[in-house]
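User: Run a structure prediction on this.
Assistant: Running it now.
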Amino acid sequence: MSDAVARPVDWGRALRVQLRVLGALILREMSTRFGRENLGYLWLFAEPLMLGTAIGALHHVTGHGLPGGLHVLMFWVTGYVPFYMFRSVINRAPTTVVANQSLLYHRRITILDIMLARNLLEGGAVMGTLVIFLAAFGMALDLWPKEPALVVFGMAAMLAMAHGAALILAAGAIYTDLIDRVIHLVTYVTMPFTGAFFMVFWLPTEMQHQALRIPTVQCFEMIRRGLFGTAVPTTFDVPYIITWIIGLNLAGLLMMNVARRKLVV
């Protein structure tokens, strides 16, 4: 009879170890993305600012305002920043596993750790960018977010949704390079439908119901409710958004578990 006694799993210690692993991966990703090329971080600010300024100037010159009297520059910049985050997470997903495959030799590191580290860094960097923009709009134009918690929750929901989609794409990319070739085009083609550059109440009634089927549209509606409050009508359904987040992430985890067997480590 064996004297060995099964020891209970120390979940607290296991969590601390995984958090240290995640922290180390985030630091590694920061060095890779921002440490070697300072322009990489500055571009987080430059791209949405240039787009917002260009479109804002066009509306100013033509005399076109936005429904509800929304500030043109603030609307376009705060619309593009969350989309920038969503697009970056999606576009980087197909190369994430292949580019970091050597890390899987370490027993403590999993594919989920690698994906989480990259996507949390992306989300944190873009959220920091949005905070700076909002502070600038507040100080320069006295346009402060009406419900900041909704802005944060909307950004977090957008990131969680993008993370689930990224898991699916990364799993598919293990089988074929085609995903990496077409995903950039797909994100640009679908950009007008994400809700980044329109609000639901602008649309005809029959189109509003169709638009609200797109989960990113509801995330943008939530963010704009946080930014503009009740100054303009917004429509979003939190349970619907959470259902999409859970569904995408569960599908991504299942697909990654299957695709993991194809990797040679």
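The mean pLDDT is 84.
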